[in-house]
Amino acid sequence: MTFIKPNFQEGFLVIFIALVLVVSSCTRGTSTAPPTIAATIPGYLTPYWTATPSRTPRPPTLLVSIPTTPAPTATPFLHKLTDSDTMLGLAIRYGITLDELMAANPGVDPHYLTVGKFLVIPIKGATATVVPTPTPIPLILGEPRCYPTGEGGAWCMLLVRNEQADAVEDLSAWIGLYSPEGKLLTSQTAMPPLNILPSGGAIPLMIYFQPMIPAQAIPRVELLTAIAVPPDDTRYITATVQLQNTNLDSSGLQATVKGQVVLPKDSPKAKILWLVVVAYDKDGNAVGVRKWEADNPCGGLQPPGTPMQTPGVTTPGPTGGCGAVPFEVTVFSLGPGIERVEVLVEAR
């Protein structure tokens, strides 16, 4: 038997060639080109613009919605007031809230209802739409002032002056109490004690805020309604006030006014006679209000010029028209001492 001696160099070469052929066959047809890199779109930064700082802080503005009057329904329901009616009683009677009833009757003072006047009774559940409120007549508004009470509430007053040529009526103003940081704490609609404000006159609008009112609360106001009274309007009767004396208490916190209201003989007989005594401090700010109403003012009155009698006691007046109505009213200050008093009157 013949043995052939292997040649290791030739064998190594044969193995190397075989490996090359195998690798070439496995990779044949496969693309090895590097991936294409897409160009990146450059980004943009949007700057954040802040408000330009102010050197002096601005006072807080009214950031609330002033109550608006709901539009009457297609078939509005009216209620004629009697001497026993109250706003709260009517709200309970008709199954609505007091706020809804007041919103439907913005020109009515809930504390002083007039017998025979009609109130709009909103339908419960009806969708309310906003009725544009007429722009009020420009009047002079004083600085609102609030006087705290012992139980933690506050009486707030706004003195309104009429420098227009005609009298105005249906006055109302929004009063809001703010914190020193400008946050609204509470708000209400203030009404005057009388319906009419004659030309050249001034009257306080006032409202009571329930406890607890912070001592540092800041009042802010906005006039809501003020309607001009036509010169030929016959609803109001011209009445004059004749003062007999004014007695100021030694404490300076109360004053008693005595006098009479004279109603013209040729005027219609008055069915309503209201008297308001306003107390002012030395700076001219209203610090107290007292309202007085005459019962049956033309039912039995004394003729003008008759000696003064006990308040509330009257004698038969003239057959044509009214005479004079005596009064004696005491007004108290809610804050500083009383410097002077002013008497306002309304007759209808």
Describe the structure.
The protein is mostly beta strands and 348 residues long. It folds into three domains: 66-132, LysM domain (Membrane-bound Lytic Murein Transglycosylase D, Chain A), CATH 3.10.350.10; 140-228, Immunoglobulin-like (Sandwich), CATH 2.60.40.10; 240-347, Immunoglobulin-like, CATH 2.60.40. It is built from three helices and 16 strands. It has helices at 8-27, 87-93, 98-104, and strands spanning 77-80, 118-121, 140-141, 145-148, 154-161, 168-178, 184-190, 196-197, 202-209, 218-228, 240-248, 254-262, 273-280, 286-293, 324-332, 340-347. Strands 3, 4, 5 and 9 form a four-stranded antiparallel sheet that branches. Strands 6, 7, 8 and 10 form a four-stranded antiparallel sheet that branches. A hairpin with a 5-residue loop joins strand 11 (240-248) and strand 12.
In terms of topology, how is this protein built?
Blueprint: H1 8-27, E1 77-80, H2 87-93, H3 98-104, E2 118-121, E3 140-141, E4 145-148, E5 154-161, E6 168-178, E7 184-190, E8 196-197, E9 202-209, E10 218-228, E11 240-248, E12 254-262, E13 273-280, E14 286-293, E15 324-332, E16 340-347
Antiparallel strand pairs: 1-2, 3-5, 4-5, 5-9, 6-7, 6-8, 6-10, 11-12, 12-15, 13-14, 13-16
Helix pairs in contact: 2-3
List keywords for this structure.
single chain, 348 residues, mainly beta, Membrane-bound Lytic Murein Transglycosylase D, Chain A, Immunoglobulin-like, 3 domains, four-stranded antiparallel β-sheet
